[in-house]
Amino acid sequence: MVLKNIYKSFGSIEVLKDFNLTIAEGEHIALMGKSGKGKTTILNIIMGFEKPDRGEVIIARDISAVFQEDRLSEDFSAISNVCLLKKKQKTAREILDKLGIESEKRVNTMSGGQKRRVALARGLAKDAKLYIFDEALKGLDEKTKDIAMSVINEYTRGRSVLFVTHDINEAKEFADRIVEI
Questions:
Q1: Average pLDDT for residues 97-103, to the nearest whole number?
Q2: Is the model's pLDDT at 101 over the cut of 80?
Q3: How many CB atoms are located within 10 Å of the residue 71 CB?
Q4: If DSSP codes are grouped into helix, strand and coil, which group holds residue 32?
Q5: Residue 181: CB atoms within 10 Å
Q6: In this structure, which long-range contacts are made by residues 145-151, counting pairs with CB atoms below 8 Å and at least 24 apart in sequence?
Q7: What is the arithmetic mean of pLDDT over 150-178?
Q8: With 90 as the cut, is the pLDDT of residue 94 above it?
Q9: CA 132 to CA 134: how far, in whole Å?
Q10: Global confidence as pTM
Q11: 166 close to 135: Cβ distance less than 8 angstroms
Q12: CA proximity to 51, closest of 82, 88, 10, 96
């Protein structure tokens, strides 16, 4: 998967200038940089939500993403949220259990950290060629973050991953390579 010579501006603000990124099959990359440097723009280009002003994008369209916001259906149970796109109940229950979430519990009764783990489970339950995690561990305490990182590693082993974080320790623990923008 390749982003080559990517340029992107919003009005007079140039966000990306000659940005290049290659993601090898099965490679886990941590994307880091200060706020406003273009991390979300890169993700949006990869997912097809934005088009670069110029440059080449060669990306598999089989992508699973966990966004900064949980984007859950609040009146649904955890298992219903995870199985919205794929009806893999066995896998969904397995992931939720490993993340410490009751599968039948309604999302609108959950804490922020529990909702975050449901969003993670939904992203991991899909078989994809590329997994994108945009600040996916935000708001989790250290113990829960360690568990979540372990589950992410387990379910993305051998798959390509782009992991956006501001935490250098997360990046070092997770990534084969850190890309700073």
A1: 96
A2: yes
A3: 12
A4: strand
A5: 15
A6: 145/170, 147/98, 147/99, 147/100, 148/99, 148/117, 148/120, 149/173, 149/174, 151/95, 151/98, 151/99, 151/120, 151/124
A7: 94
A8: yes
A9: 6
A10: 0.92
A11: yes
A12: 10
